[in-house]
């Protein structure tokens, strides 16, 4: 899978592309991440991309012509690409959306700064907005890195153990279970005995119970969202930990 990032700060991606699981996947050629300097499409000697907003107001706005030219140029290279821009008006990124994006051959990710883009970027291009949530960042670069991390780890071959991806939080509509490692005692806290028992069925059941319990108590919205796709075992545990939950309200 190929990621193209359009940004005025491409240097922010230097360490990102060489670190951790993603860095190893790039070394092996499983994925590629290229950061392109938007200023390369500026048509003035100062390489300026922003200007004052019509009608007045605080801040600067990124101009449409160089951004549109960059999208056309990068989009025409290689395989057809799905183009996204990080912005608050877009579809919120969740695991289902990430799985959808992971099916693409190429993603072009446009990073904003200042007060955002001239609206004609959206009116003329096919770029779609993606949001990480209801909060404000100084620019789209950190959000773009989050999108790449979320999507890339779903690409076969990026994560060494596919089971670790399948068991992740949100993959089954549940938060993940607690994890423990050596030493068996830290202060007065011990590893739960069931995890030391060697009984694989008991361990599986304990992990599922803790996963459902965490989801019910901390993210009940996930239960409402995923109730219809839960297997019977999970539904029974939901009702055990949340006896007031109304399955009928989520039946249709």
Molecular structure report:
It is a single chain. 34% of the residues lie in helices and 16% in strands. It contains nine helices and nine strands. The protein has helices at residues 20-28, 64-75, 95-101, 120-124, 141-152, 162-166, 200-218, 220-226, 232-241; strands at residues 2-7, 32-37, 50-51, 61-62, 82-92, 106-110, 128-131, 185-186, 189-190. Helix 3 links the parallel strand 5 (82-92) and strand 6. Helix 7 crosses helix 8 (220-226) and helix 7 (200-218) crosses helix 9. The protein is elongated.
Q: Which residues sit in consecutive blocks of at least 5 with pLDDT less than 50?
A: none
Helix content: 25-40%
Rounded to the nearest angstrom, the distance between the terminal CA atoms is: 37 Å
Mean pLDDT: 93
Largest sheet: 5 strands, parallel
Strand content bin: 15-25%
- Count of DSSP E strands? 9
> What overall geometry do the principal axes of the alpha carbons give?
elongated
**What is the ordering of alpha helices and beta strands?**
EHEEEHEHEHEHHEEHHH
Strand order of the largest sheet: 2-1-6-5-7
Number of helices: 9
Structural class: alpha/beta
Radius of gyration: 23 Å
């Amino acid at each position: 899978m190929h990621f193209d990032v359009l940004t005025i700060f491409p240097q922010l991606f230097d360490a990102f592309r060489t670190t951790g699981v993603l860095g190893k996947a790039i070394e092996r050629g499983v994925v590629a991440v290229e950061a392109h300097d938007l200023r390369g499409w500026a048509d003035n000697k100062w390489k300026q991309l922003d200007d004052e907003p019509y009608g007045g107001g605080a801040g600067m706005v990124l101009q449409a012509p160089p951004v549109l030219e960059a999208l056309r140029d990068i989009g025409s290279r290689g395989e057809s690409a799905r183009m996204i821009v990080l912005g608050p008006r877009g579809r919120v990124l969740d695991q289902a959306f990430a799985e959808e994006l992971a099916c693409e051959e190429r993603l072009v990710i446009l990073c904003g700064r200042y007060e955002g883009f001239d609206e004609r970027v959206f009116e003329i291009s096919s770029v779609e907005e993606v949001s990480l949530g209801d909060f404000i960042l100084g620019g789209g670069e950190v959000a773009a890195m989050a999108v790449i991390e979320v999507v890339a780890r779903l690409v076969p071959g990026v994560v060494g153990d596919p089971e670790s991806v399948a068991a992740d939080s949100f993959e089954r509509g549940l938060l993940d279970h607690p994890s423990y490692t050596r030493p068996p005692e830290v202060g007065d806290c011990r590893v739960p005995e069931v995890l030391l028992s060697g009984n694989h069925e008991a361990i599986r059941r304990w992990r599922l119970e803790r996963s459902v319990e965490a989801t019910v108590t901390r993210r009940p919205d996930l239960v409402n969202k995923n109730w219809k796709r839960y297997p019977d075992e999970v539904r029974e545990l939901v009702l055990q930990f949340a006896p007031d939950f109304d399955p009928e309200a989520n039946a249709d």
